[in-house]
Amino acid sequence: MTTMSEAPVLRPRVAARTGLYVFLGANVAVVTALFAAAGPSGNALITIGRLAGLYGALVMAFQLLLVARIPWLDRRLGMDRLTSWHRWTGFGLLWTLLGHLVFIVFGYAQVENNGPVDELVEMANTLDGILRAIVAFALILVIGGTSARFARKRMAYETWHFIHLYTYAAVVLAFSHQIALGQSFTSSPFAQAYWWTLWGVALGAVLLGRVVLPLWRNLRHQLRVVAVVPESPDVVSVYMSGKRLNELPARAGQFFLWRFLTRERWFQANPFSLSAAPDGKTLRLTAKALGEGSASLRNLKVGTRVFAEGPYGAFTTLQQTRSNALLVAGGVGVTPIRALLEEIKGHVVVIYRVGSSRDAVLLHELHGLARARGARVHVLTGPSQVSGPYGPLLGPASLLKLAPDLNDRDVFVCGPPGMTNAVLASLRELSVPRQQVHAERFSLAG
């Protein structure tokens, strides 16, 4: 009989990651074969440019899949990890498309004995699809620039999201350019079928994951606010109910993008994790007033309609590999930890890091759950620089004191970035296996 400590051959996260690698690798092989079958150009620069363009088209389709919010991938990898990969492949997309543009223009300029700028102007005026490709590249540059960290931090999510909608215009323009001038696209019926299928799957996944599924779930479940409960002067819990919630595939530790359909808030989507395990009757979020969106939750009226996108996230017991667990929460990051405490298997140790005892939101619920299931709860208070008898409160020695069998536990961490990074650094120093460490940042893409 297999026990929890005997990890399955292929963990969910590994299975999803391997599937993505295989998918990308197989398509790279197909694209390379199509390029070879179409034959090289008489000019080396043009040949390199065409190959860069094909890889750029493939990376663009792969990027769409990463942010399509496909439930199977999201439950195993998490939106934060998929978004991070989307961002890094974006750099690859920029370089491949830039290489495509530069090598093609310089190659044709060499063939025509023309200057590169004059050649680009001539190509835009005489070749079908070139102008569309230039516009697509300009859009991708703008979108990439707004995704840079320094720009993203200075921009409201709604503004950033609106700009990113132009990604779909760039995709359509780039694909129409490929149809018009792509040598490997027109080289055979198989090549055409392949590219149409690839783009159909990518765009279809986006349509399904980001439009059809959210609309269907909200029409099916029809969420409404049933209670608004202050937990402290700056923390509030919102309870929601609806139809057939027992059929909603939500798990403890996951989050939704919530839109409360009032005149002031309907256009704002805020990510809040569930602060209680779904019971098939109600959903609950608990939020601290950190911004305008979370502060206004206190003023919600009972009966307010709710549009929820999700559930999202891989911060669930699906990732559990060992019989016991350590849950580490910081501040309001306790909300998914509190939900996990209801559902996670085995003996559990909870570490709750807060500035002071009055910041310990939902502490009475943690203690109640701990008593019911024989778990231990440790509340660590004090400024971020404070040290205990074993050094930093979340340092290696302190973690080992609170959970001596740490290396034989799954560790779930949720809190502010600084705290999360400190815990992850301590776990690395203690050589806790990576597959036993689970941390997820609950935020909108980007």
TrEMBL record:
One of its GO terms (molecular function) is flavin adenine dinucleotide binding. It is found in: Membrane. SUPFAM superfamilies: Ferredoxin reductase-like, C-terminal NADP-linked domain, Riboflavin synthase domain-like. One of its GO terms (cellular component) is membrane. Residues 218-318 form the FAD-binding FR-type domain. It is a multi-pass membrane protein. Its cofactor is FAD. The chain crosses the membrane at residues 20-38, 44-67, 88-109, 129-151, 163-181, 193-213. InterPro entries: FAD-bd_FR_type, Fe3_Rdtase_TM_dom, FNR_nucleotide-bd, MRET, OxRdtase_FAD/NAD-bd, Riboflavin_synthase-like_b-brl. It comes from the Bacteria. Keywords: 2Fe-2S, FAD, Flavoprotein, Iron, Iron-sulfur, Membrane, Metal-binding, Oxidoreductase, Transmembrane, Transmembrane helix. The keyword Aminoacyl-tRNA synthetase does not apply. This is Predicted ferric reductase.
